[in-house]
Amino acid sequence: MVLGGHIYGVILSYGAISLLGSLAERGARKEANIEIRKIRTKRMLLAVQRGFIAMTCWSPLTFSIAITTSLIDGSSWSGAAIPCFISALILMALGLLLDFFYKSKINIDSNNLIRKTGSWNTVMPLLFLFIFLLSLIGSIQYITDLRAVAVVMLIVPIFSLFWIIYQNYNSKNLNILYIRTKERVSGYIFKDIVNYKSELILLIMAAFIGTMASSIIAPYINGDVINFSSIPSWLVLVGILWLMPITGQIGMNPILAVYLIAPLLPQAANLGVSPNAIILALTSGWALSGISSPYTASTLLIADLAKITPIQAGLKWNGLFTLTGGLLLSCWVIFISQFL
To answer: Which pLDDT band holds residue 195 (cuts at 50, 70, 90)?
Structure first.
């Protein structure tokens, strides 16, 4: 489920949590033993969320990469991809390790907790889609030297259109193909996007408020109230990483936090680090905020599926994961700041 949440997250974004979480919750509901049902639900939902949130560390299809690389001069997805992907591996490995220790403490036969069905052949089309799409984005970015977000905005709509055509292809009746493709495209433009108007307003306002707040605070920073030159660069990066989940606990959306923090930072050269090291710190903090803050979409979705409060899902279920992951990622950021 960790890998599924990660791969499906790249393709479906938050839809991956709704899809896999609903399947996990529905499957656990068939369990007659209430205790086993609660344990299975928790483990499966946490696996989905942790796999998904690790994806935000590196995927070029996420807001985290798109926004941070646009705010930090000299950064790029191709330059930050490998260190950020290793951050994702760290979080996924930590999730599996914590799940192993959690399972070992349960006084129930572990064979009753997970029932394996299906095979890897079921997800092979998705793996092909995942690899092909990322390879296409990376190749075009390398050839054109465009930012990853620009390539994604160009490629994904075209790729999606061809995918819709492939799904509805019928060589015997091209008119049906045209009608079904038209219905899917018009339905997305005139219904799905409209249904996301509240979320879009939230995202736009978060970016606007963060930009305005940073412009107000900037004179105090530039006036040497905070002198970054006297602070070790690795400490600045670690501070960025931890500031994201901390501000998330008081209701600050990660987008708002990034738009507030990034413009206040000095140039990477002045810090003596690579711009991509700053991207690593920001995206790592974004992931920790996304899984621990009771106000983020992933936590709200998991809480709704588990029938618990967002505070329970964010802090009780993921508190240890956030603290341990923060320490591990801090060490990784410090290492990268010295060698990237």
So the answer is: confident
